[in-house]
Amino acid sequence: MSVDVQERRRFTAALLGEDAAPPPSDPSPQVVRGVVLHVTAHMLTVATLKGEERFLFERTTSFWRGRDVGPQDVRVGDDVLVRCGGGGRWVVDRLWAQLGRVTGTIVSADGDTVVVDPGHGRPRAVAVIPYRSSGRMAVRHPVLEPGYLFDAVGVREGGAVHTTVPVTTQPPHPASRAPRRPPARRVPEALSGIVTWYDPAYGRAAHTDPRAHAAGAAYPALDPGSDCGPDCDRSDPCLPLPLLSLGATVTVRNDDTGVSAVFPVLNCASAASRFCDRCREGSGDASGRLAELTLPAFTALGGRPEAGCFAATMEAG
To answer: Is the residue at 281 inside a domain?
Structure first.
């Protein structure tokens, strides 16, 4: 969290009371991200912000690199996310290699490649749809043309994400033609919807960039007069979200695992305001995006990054 965001939370708590801006939860020690230095069938060495760290594999450890793989498919130099099990920090329960995600509105499409606008403040992203994934993608994303929504998870290769899993089903009409959403009469204290994830480091320098390890949230309804700014491209959210500012805190509970934590709002998630989808997996039928958690935060709450989302309950302040 930046100093500015920390100061905003402290100011809000001092002005309105601690209940209006509860302190963020400590990052989970069981979720680690870094770059692979050495890997065998039984052990992993990773470069992290803390230096070199070593982890053990068990027979039950699972690995993902676009699909379920084995430890032999994890390579030196890979950006990996590790979730440890058994209440400790040294035995790997699940490992994800080269995770990438492309979410937003399609800007251009040419063959198996689409360029996507991820929204206010984020660089455009390139998604490549391999032939083996094209069938699944066509079911969940019936139209791959400019103006349509796109959201898929895959493997980072070079400057693109080679997508393997479409996260949710998108409508067969452009985002600009979405049905008008009536204004909310009131905002409930607890909101139900879905939570997704994003990578504020864009897959770069996971061993040296603090953004790759941040535990926080991007929010789709930032105050348009300040934090979102005059160039903000968000629309009316699918859910009756309260306006928040950077530095505010939100309490998020994974409705499938029951795990909850308090996260600071670190970034804008303007693109999330255009999605009115629901998760393909998990319990509940809630729709609409509450927030985008950073990749470590999402995983710490029990989320599966390859699934892309989970049903959640959120309280602001």
So the answer is: yes
